[in-house]
Recover the amino acids of this structure.
């Protein structure tokens, strides 16, 4: 049987001997020849010679097909790289990109040696483009990469939300991750030595919270002029925490301010119709018809003076208002409800706005750098609405707000004029609920206790492309 097989193989190989003499030895022919050659060694001499012929015949067979490699060597995944999309080696590096004046994303990526093609792909995502397009000095962008190839990007949008960009099977995904946080109440107090901001910093209170405190008592205290060394404050306020990190400060729940020996107190309360306001312990609203000053935390650069010498004209010219020095762009707010009577350029006042209020009262705001976009002549404004921004237009030597208060056309000193009082008490049916809410807060103002239950808020994440 073996001899018959050998004859067939020798016959098939003879016809193709010339063409296949230089053909490479196929791997399957070699595998078949070795065991048959071993068998041939066990045969008599004739079998030995036949085995040699078989070996030559197999070496001369030309393969009729080849099996291609399924993977190119360049496509093979290096050891240890599993779990990293795109064949990354898994050597994740982290870098924080701090934005400086004049920086662009392109410049930041180039300096850090990051892949610009990845940046282009990321900026094609609507969510990523929205929150990465505008950069401000001091912004921080955290990037995870592998030899410059982007793996992930994160940027804090606000205290409670973070932009998250991650590499996906095809390209990148972008979305907004909302942090879970716990709301706690805290107590802080301070004494003024040089300024209210300095006292707040020593008490560990954010600028935003101290601004809110000034707004609560703005109708009773002029925080530009009335503050004295030794004045003090105490506040009960909200804090938002996430895994041991303080994210932000929330609303002031209760406050006390002692100015020149006189104390003022306020409690935050939401009425039955949903309106939120601050009330005295007796239940009277602290919202007055007029605020004493239309902007907070400045200094008076020129007081009301009928016989002031003008700094530019060098002549005796009545100064019919009060000048509040403040940086260009500081928001100017309506001191009371009213209607816009004038908006535009007005001689030495530069850009000016005149508001008309009930009772024959009007107020003027001069030297504005620009107007609020929503302010138009004839439009009604509410107390606290931003109407413009501090500037130095007209006859002005430096950025400041010129503020006038008129009653039936007569100029009055805004610092000393008796302001209308529109404080309204709580409705009788809400006094009981107000007392229930106010009692523990007022007790904490007195005793310094810091033991109110925390309320948990859990925002949900949302992701989009």
């Amino acid at each position: 049987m073996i001899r018959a097989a050998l004859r067939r193989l020798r016959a098939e190989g003879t016809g193709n001997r010339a063409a296949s003499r230089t053909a490479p030895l196929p791997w399957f022919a070699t595998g078949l020849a070795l065991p048959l050659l071993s068998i041939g060694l066990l045969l008599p001499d004739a079998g030995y010679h036949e085995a040699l012929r078989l070996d030559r015949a197999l070496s001369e067979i030309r393969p009729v097909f080849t099996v291609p490699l399924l993977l190119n060597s360049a496509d093979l995944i290096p050891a240890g790289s599993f779990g990293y999309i795109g064949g990354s080696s898994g050597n994740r590096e982290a870098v924080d990109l701090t934005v400086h004046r004049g920086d662009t994303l392109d410049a930041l990526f180039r300096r850090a040696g990051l892949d610009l093609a990845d940046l282009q792909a990321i900026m094609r995502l609507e969510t990523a483009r929205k929150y990465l397009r505008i950069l401000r000095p001091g912004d921080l962008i955290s990037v995870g990469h592998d030899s410059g190839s982007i793996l992930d990007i994160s940027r804090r949008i606000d205290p409670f939300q973070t932009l998250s960009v991650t590499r996906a099977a095809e390209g990148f995904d972008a979305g907004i991750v909302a942090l879970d946080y716990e709301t706690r109440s805290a107590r802080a107090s301070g004494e003024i030595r040089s300024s209210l901001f300095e006292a707040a910093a020593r008490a560990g209170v954010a600028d935003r919270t101290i601004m809110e405190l000034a707004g609560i008592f703005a109708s009773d205290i002029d925080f530009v002029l009335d503050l004295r060394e030794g004045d003090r404050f105490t506040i009960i306020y909200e804090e938002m925490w996430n895994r041991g990190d303080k994210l932000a400060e929330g609303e002031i729940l209760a406050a006390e301010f002692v100015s020149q020996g006189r104390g003022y107190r306020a409690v935050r309360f939401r009425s039955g119709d949903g309106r939120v306001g601050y009330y005295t312990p007796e239940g009277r609203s602290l919202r007055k018809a007029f605020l004493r000053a239309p902007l907070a935390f400045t200094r008076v650069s020129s007081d009301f003076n009928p016989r002031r010498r003008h700094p530019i004209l060098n002549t005796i010219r009545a100064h019919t208002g009060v000048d509040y020095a403040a940086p260009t762009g500081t928001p100017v707010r309506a001191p009371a409800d009213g209607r816009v009577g004038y908006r535009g350029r007005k001689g030495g006042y530069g850009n000016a706005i005149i508001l008309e209020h009930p009772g024959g009262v009007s107020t003027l705001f001069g030297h504005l750098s620009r107007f609020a976009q929503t302010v138009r002549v004839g439009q009604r404004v509410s107390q606290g609405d931003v109407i413009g921004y501090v500037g130095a237009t007209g006859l002005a030597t430096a950025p400041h707000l010129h503020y006038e208060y008129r009653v039936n056309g007569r100029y009055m000193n805004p610092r000393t004029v008796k302001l209308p009082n529109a404080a309204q008490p709580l409705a009788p049916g809400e006094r009981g609920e107000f007392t229930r809410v106010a009692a523990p807060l007022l007790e904490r103002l007195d005793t310094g206790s810091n033991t109110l239950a925390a309320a948990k808020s859990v925002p949900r994440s949302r992701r989009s492309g």
The mean pLDDT is 79. The CA atoms of residues 190 and 203 lie 6 Å apart. The chain is about 25% helix and 30% strand. The domain at 93-178 is CATH 3.10.450.350 (Nuclear Transport Factor 2; Chain: A,).
